[in-house]
């Protein structure tokens, strides 16, 4: 896939802090929304993952802020999965306002076996098995 998956969001007033810009925790919510939107677009239902006894987990996230966001602004949140070997994968995300970079988020994730409470050995195989369009996930 040449372009990362994106979702558009309007910043809501209640998401801002006393300085009038988006609260830090809300950036994480925007990123989470984009990740689940991508997974759903790839044909994976959260309920199906739970039925099969697995679920994606976030192991680490780093955020870097470039510009503030304010209520009423339209933003675009991107999401791209980056696969390597082993039990984990990376998720690269940006948040943009009018094309300008507002924040970057870099995460490490895995797919947890909910019964064993351990990461599955190869999340790529699991995501391929669930997805109807694995190419959206970079697979």
Give structural notes.
By secondary structure, the protein is of the alpha+beta class. It has one domain: Hotdog Thioesterase (Thiol Ester Dehydrase, Chain A), CATH 3.10.129. It contains three helices and six strands. The protein has helices spanning 24-41, 46-51, 123-130, and strands spanning 5-10, 54-65, 74-83, 88-97, 100-113, 118-119. Strand 3 (74-83) and strand 4 (88-97) form a beta hairpin. It is elongated. The model has no long low-confidence stretch (mean pLDDT 96).
What string gives the helices and strands in order? Answer: EHHEEEEEH
Query: Helix amount, in percent?
Result: 10-25%
| First-last Cα distance | 9 Å
The overall strand count is: 6
Q: Tell me the overall shape.
A: elongated
What is the CATH homologous superfamily assignment? Hotdog Thioesterase
Return the domain count: 1
* Percent in strands: 35-45%
- pLDDT average, as an integer? 96
CATH class category:
Alpha Beta
Radius of gyration: 16 Å
The SS-based structural class is alpha+beta
